[in-house]
Design brief:
Blueprint: E1 4-7, H1 11-23, E2 28-32, H2 35-41, E3 47-50, H3 59-70, E4 75-80, H4 85-92, E5 98-101, H5 106-117, H6 125-138, H7 142-150, H8 157-167, H9 172-179, H10 183-197, H11 202-212
Parallel strand pairs: 1-2, 1-3, 3-4, 4-5
């Protein structure tokens, strides 16, 4: 059985989860209070129960992106009090395996963990419905659907940040100054991003994301 990491900024919640999951037979290998600590303490093979809002409103999402950059096989389950559609879509776009709302019965949480460990995550009806709704919304455009499936979830955290800069109309030099790198580095990253998305210009990436209505993924 895989070990678990619990990432939540409230000690009482971490302690409650530890107690309940240990009774269910799980080993808690680490318990952290921030996304930064989750990245630092993550070990391959560990299943992560990740809160979303910790040291910042999206700390868990950023931590998940970073963990998946380091280990593409990482298994993250979001366990959070946020359950609105936009948050679920943003969270699942990271490549996380499941999304469970805080307050769920510990046995239900344990079932989700076991299913993820088996490689057969059982998304809740709510999450399935949201993802299916997004699928149906995109189905009318084959190009859009292929972009969503093949490219969006594979973007690195750095590439997401780069797209966010494009969405805000920033130029190469402005992006370089913001990220404390040389313009030539940004241009190299842009070339990689264009190749990955199949677009010929950064304006095309921005237009496609707006067409898909996915601006919320690039704040």
């Amino acid at each position: 059985m895989a070990g678990l990491m619990i990432a939540d900024d409230f000690q009482i919640i971490r302690d409650d989860l530890r107690s309940g999951l240990e009774e269910e037979g799980f080993e808690i290998v680490s318990s952290v209070s921030s996304g930064r600590e989750a990245v630092e303490m993550y070990e391959p093979g560990t299943i992560v129960l990740m809160d979303i809002e910790m040291e910042s409103a999206d700390a868990g999402i950023k931590a998940t992106e970073t963990i998946l950059e380091k280990d593409k096989d990482a298994r993250v389950i979001f366990l959070t009090s946020h359950d609105d559609d936009d948050v679920i879509m943003t969270a699942m776009a990271t490549g996380a395996k499941d999304f469970v709302v805080k307050g769920s019965d510990i046995k239900d949480i344990a079932t989700h963990i076991r299913d993820v460990e088996k490689g057969k995550p059982q998304l809740t009806q709510r999450v399935q419905g949201i993802l299916m709704g997004e699928y149906k919304r995109l189905r009318h455009s084959e190009r859009s659907l292929l972009f969503f499936i093949q490219h969006l979830s594979s973007l690195t955290a750095a590439e997401r940040e780069l797209i966010s800069c494009f969405m805000h109309g920033m130029k190469v030099r402005e992006i370089a100054e913001k990220r404390f790198v040389e313009p030539v580095t940004v241009k190299s990253q842009i070339r990689t991003l264009l190749a990955k998305t199949g677009c010929s210009r950064t304006k095309d990436i921005v237009s496609l994301i707006r067409e898909l209505g996915l601006e919320r993924l690039f704040p």
